[in-house]
């Protein structure tokens, strides 16, 4: 099995777990858990493939993607129900790894379709974060990428690094590894030191008193 493909399946499992946990926080039934888990794990790649007209969509041509997502979701339900909650720090680290892998794979797929650099970066970021955005919207939450530590920014940097290394004819496995480590390092640093982009606070200016009539 190709090592990048194995990492891809690991990313699917991790994102499915985060989706299952979100569904649990919303007290959904098992069907709801599975739906949210699959949306989280496969939503980004599906949207990428549809936009790029890349058919068949990755999980349609390979049963392992759905199988891994379902097993991860059901396993999460069983683990939490009969043992103890999953440690959030460990999950964040695993999520960061999945984010890094998905970003590089998304960028790689886009470049195979000869799209411009800007589109390749967007496709890489989309692959990494769109599933989580869909999950949060369906669950009536503000998407994670809009109000937490640096997340999508790490994807942008990692995608650009991968494209640059490809342009410099870096050996294939080495450029993938360096790009994955770039996203992973930035995301883990953001988690460790709570790094975030500046926030935009819109404050209402005090209105002047109305003139006496």
UniProtKB/TrEMBL annotation:
Membrane topology of the entry: Multi-pass membrane protein
Span of domain Glycine transporter: 6-79, 93-166
Transmembrane segments: 6-23, 30-52, 64-82, 89-111, 117-138, 150-168, 174-195
Keywords: Cell membrane, Membrane, Transmembrane, Transmembrane helix
Presence of keyword Phosphoprotein: no
Principal place of residence: membrane
UniProt keyword Transmembrane helix, yes or no: yes
Stored Pfam families: Gly_transporter
Subcellular location: Cell membrane
A single Gene Ontology CC term: plasma membrane
Family annotation (PANTHER family): INNER MEMBRANE PROTEIN (PTHR30506), UPF0126 INNER MEMBRANE PROTEIN YADS-RELATED (PTHR30506:SF3)
Protein's name according to its UniProt entry: Glycine transporter domain-containing protein
Protein species of origin: marine sediment metagenome
């Amino acid at each position: 099995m190709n090592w990048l493909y194995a990492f891809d399946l690991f990313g699917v499992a991790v994102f499915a777990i985060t989706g299952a946990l979100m569904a649990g926080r919303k007290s959904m039934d098992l069907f709801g858990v599975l739906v949210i888990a699959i949306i989280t794990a496969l939503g980004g790649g599906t949207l990428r493939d549809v936009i790029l007209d890349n058919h068949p969509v990755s999980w349609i041509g390979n049963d392992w993607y759905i199988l891994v997502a379902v097993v991860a979701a059901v396993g999460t339900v069983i683990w939490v129900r009969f043992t103890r909650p999953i440690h959030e720090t460990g999950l964040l680290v695993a999520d960061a790894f999945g984010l890094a892998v998905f970003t590089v794979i998304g960028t790689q797929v886009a470049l195979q379709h000869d799209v411009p650099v800007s589109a390749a970066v967007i496709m890489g970021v989309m692959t990494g974060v769109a599933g989580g955005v869909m999950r949060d919207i369906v669950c009536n939450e503000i998407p994670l990428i809009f109000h937490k530590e640096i997340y999508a920014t790490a994807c942008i940097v990692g995608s650009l690094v991968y494209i640059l290394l490809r342009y410099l004819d870096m050996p294939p496995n080495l450029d993938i590894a360096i790009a994955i480590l770039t996203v992973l390092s930035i995301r883990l640093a953001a988690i460790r030191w709570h790094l975030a982009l500046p926030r935009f606070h819109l404050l209402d200016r005090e209105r002047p008193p109305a003139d006496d009539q």
